[in-house]
Amino acid sequence: MFDYLIVGAGYAGSVLAERLARDASKRVLVCDRRPHIAGNAYDHYDDAGLLVHRYGPHIFHTNSREVFEYLSQFTEWRQYQHRVLASVDGQLLPIPINLDTINRYYGLNLTSFEVEDFLAKMAEHREQIRTSEDVVVSRVGRELYEKFFRNYTRKQWGLDPSELDSSVTARVPVRTNRDDRYFTDTYQAMPKHGYTRMFENMLDHPNIHVMLNTDYRDIQRFVPFKEMIYTGPVDEFFDLRYGKLPYRSLEFKHETHDAEVYQQAPVINYPNDYLYTRVTEFKYLTGQTHEKTSIVYEFPRAEGDPYYPVPRPENAELYAKYKALADKTPGVHFVGRLATYKYYNQDQVVAQALTVYKKITGKGNGDGVKGGGR
Ligand code: FAD
Ligand code: UDP
Questions:
Q1: What is the pLDDT of residue 30?
Q2: Is the pLDDT at 372 greater than 60, yes or no?
Q3: CB-based contacts of 58: which residues, under 8 Å, 6+ apart?
Q4: Which of 135, 242, 264, 297 is the most exposed place for a label (fewest CB within 10 A)?
């Protein structure tokens, strides 16, 4: 008899499996319908021997010391600060938009002080910041919005920024200094031996059993368990009772090039050209030295594996109906990006899973998190 059946071996499922097994001595079965652990953070060595992220670039960053210390039990880290360039009108310019982006785009030589006035003149006043268009236009004006955000967003989401919550483009700040890092979090690092290795360490416990290539629907009637932790899409759990909750998908095109370096930056965004949104060169992220280099293109899709919840009012309304059902389903805990329909980064899913763990077990803040290290 298992205490828990955990559906999904991504962050949500693996953190809970680790805590329940190691800290609460529970017997746990983790199943995943994919042939591997680590969910969308899965990485592996490709045919050329290069470490690549199968489901697109994953960069770890967090301001939470608790989350960073928790994961540090399972991996060493390689310091890494992510940088992205956007290809606009034939130039490669820093994104997030910063002082250099503005000076180079407009052919100016403004200082940090002057650029504030410049932006204030460009900005369109909005009474209320409701949509992803409002956020950008009210800060940098229409021209930069159209060059850097409008088309990228339409490509990525199949929606105009005016149809998406402000939270989507608000992920990307605007800076008046020359800081060209994508993130400014306190902790920014990559797992030294990759994400999958970190997950292997997390799941390496005698009380944890892992079944891959296994949909929980195929085993739940045969495997005795007391409670379930579900980390898949919430609408699927309820057989789409209220209709399909939209999740945005991507198609990844991986390539290996016979050259040491392929492009000038870890990621190059293509807001206005091509059908893909961005190209990632993994060696920058992993620090691997190799005579070849592997890259990935991301092509947004409406159908396919669910990757992104789509933050907009009508979807929040539909999710609220599923959440009400979930709250009324005894013995099942819904955790993670797909199950709680939240556009969460890795660290936010870890934090959410740790919170659920504390709630399930009644353990107080910080309990056990530092306890069970290797
Ligand atoms: P998932 O990783 O999706 O895991 C859920 C698992 O459940 C899956 O493996 C799935 O196969 C399994 N499952 C679903 N249904 C069933 C079923 N019926 N039976 C069995 N198994 C099932 N975050 C960052 O912090 N930094 C980044 O740079 C970053 N980049 C990203 C880039 C892309 C392209 C994407 C898509 C996401 C990115 N993220 C990034 C977000 C990150 O991937 C997620 O926050 C995190 O992986 C979510 O973990 P999870 O456990 O909630 O879900
Ligand atoms: N975005 C954009 N242009 C860019 C980068 C981002 O318009 O050059 C918008 C786009 O809507 C994107 C969102 O900002 O989906 C969030 O970007 P982020 O890089 O955080 O996306 P993720 O890595 O989660 O795919």
A1: 98
A2: no
A3: 40, 41, 43, 195, 346
A4: 264
Establish whether residue 166 lines the binding site of ligand 2, counting it when its CB lies within 6 angstroms of any ligand atom.
Answer: no
**Average pLDDT, integer, range 92-103:** 98
Domains of the chain: 2-37+203-245+310-370 (3.40.50.720), 96-170 (no CATH)
Check pocket membership of 169 for ligand 2, CB cut-off 6 A: yes
Reported as type and span, the H/E element at residue 281 is strand 278-281
Most ligand 2 atoms within 8 A of CB, residue of 83, 145, 152, 279 to mutate: 152
Residues in the chain: 374
Distance 122 CA to ligand 1 centre (A): 38
Provide the 8-state DSSP code for 374.
Answer: -
Residue 160 has pLDDT above 50, yes or no: yes
At 363 the pLDDT is: 86
Token reading at 367: 């309990």
The burial of 296, by beta-carbon neighbours within 10 Å (0-12 exposed, 13-18 middle, 19 or more buried), is given as buried
Q: Which of 234, 214, 230 minimizes the C-alpha distance to 222?
A: 214
Mutate to test the pocket of ligand 1, among 40, 279, 357 (most ligand atoms within 8 A of CB): 40
Residue ranges with strand state E in 46-95: 51-53, 60-62, 77-79, 84-88, 91-95
* Structure confidence at residue 367 as a pLDDT band (50, 70, 90): very low
